[in-house]
Amino acid sequence: MAPTSTHCHMINGATQNGAAVPVEADTAPPSCAHLLDADEFRRQGYQVIDLIADYYTGMGDYPVHPSVKPGFLRRQLPAVAPSRPEPDAFAAALKDVRDLILPGMTHWQSPRHFAHFPASSSIAGALGEALTAGINAVPFTWSASPAATELEMVVVDWLGKALHLPESLLFCGGGGGTVLGTSCEAILCALVAARDRKLADIGSGRIGDLVVYCSDQTHFAFRKAAHIAGIHRDHCRAIPTCRDDMYALSPTELQAAMQADVDAGLVPLFLCATIGTTQTTAVDPIQELCAVTAAHGVWVHVDAAYAGSALVCPEFRHVIAGVEAVDSFSMNAHKWLLANTDCCVLWVKRPSLLVAALGTEQEYILKDAAAEGADALDYKDWSVTLTRRFRALKLWLVLRCYGVEGLREHIRAHVRMAAAFENMVRADSRFEVVATRQFALVCFRLRSPEKFGGEKKANELNRRLLEEVNRNGSGPYMSSAMVDGIYMLRCAIGSTLTEEHHVREAWKVVQARATSLLRKMEILHSAWLPKMNYATRLGDQQETCI
Q1: Which of 152, 409, 472, 514 has its Cβ near the most Cβ atoms within 10 Å?
Q2: Beta pairing class for 479-483 and 486-492
Q3: Which helix (H) or strand (E) holds 491?
Q4: pLDDT tens-digit readout, 360-381
Q5: Which residues neighbour 76 within 8 Å (Cβ) at sequence distance 6 or greater?
Q6: Stated pTM of the model
């Protein structure tokens, strides 16, 4: 861990944690003319670049997950902001980033971070973010930043073609896309468009009759979006899945649920299918599900937040068989496609439905003579927010700098590492792979020996194993899932910095912790068994005497 900061925070007339803070001589704040001074920007910018480069170089010095308690940072920082800057305030602040903030972070870019899903980074992605911040445009309409709008239109078609999406979802085929922050936004936008289309047919008074569908493996973001969109909580059907179906949504069960709702006088509205669920990366069968929904006029959205990135590889094209029939599709390029957080792309087959639901009448201040009468696209009408970031710039840089082939190799490398980890798990008879590996996530658990309670104690055993694995200061850091009553460990490989030796080392830690845990249980069991035998014999003697 980095050394504790010795920097003294001094605030004029302030106290820190109840103690007086020394007041230093006032430093005049910079004049407006110097807030974006080019020379000062270079000087401070180089400091930031150096800090980030050093951070990546020294990533191994940090535990992946910090051992801190709530309030640890608040106690080290002043309670109020400085009234005037201290001398060389930027350098002092960067020192606090290095000494106070970084040691308290979970390091998602660590090559030993195998929890949750990846939040991939790259030089192009990070510098694209910096470039976006430096330009600081607000492209809510075409006229507000024409190049930003048109680059976004170009880059979503580029990416859609790279992912083998149908032309009907791209601008070149009558559809279109936009770059948002997260899949939560994408799902909400699609759901609102579907809601308004349906209510236009059946009347707005029937909003209480609308029903939406997903599997019990669908991300909670969908239920949250449904609630925001005005769908009754008890009208969100989470259809149970099973291990035999690899936790995929069953078309037969979906058909039964929809028909039951129709028979009850309700109106099926929306299906959220998933390619790569959060728990186990299950893949819902799009083609079969669309065949079910077609009869009810249901909007089908595909959430491919994690696994959508894998579609750059032709060998994964089969997981979206039937995607031509869906109404919308979204994926997070910041998860596994090197675009840095945040970068979610939403494609829709009929953009006019998004605009109808989310569009606004332009105020005079937003109008521009150059756009009058032209076929100009205003992205403010494609999302919930008016203010939006120029996210397309970094995505464009990533595609230009690495190319589709470079992205394919990036994905394939992680898939190979995951396959190697899976083979290591299978080679140790003490463990089992719980869910079929689809991409670069391996779900596994330690088998519980019968003498230690067998299946009844398996979940608790694996909870303890994960705690022991994550307690290891040098990593790895993994997460868990509970599916169908089974507690499992998740090893999600996807960090840009992860190499094969990190995966092998992670497995060695898991094995060592499992060996230690089983040994402790054996000792306890050995100590407990004679006492149980004695109690049993004593009970038998007492019965004999009676």
Answers
A1: 152
A2: antiparallel
A3: strand 486-492
A4: 876 655 666 555 656 789 999 9
A5: 5, 100
A6: 0.89
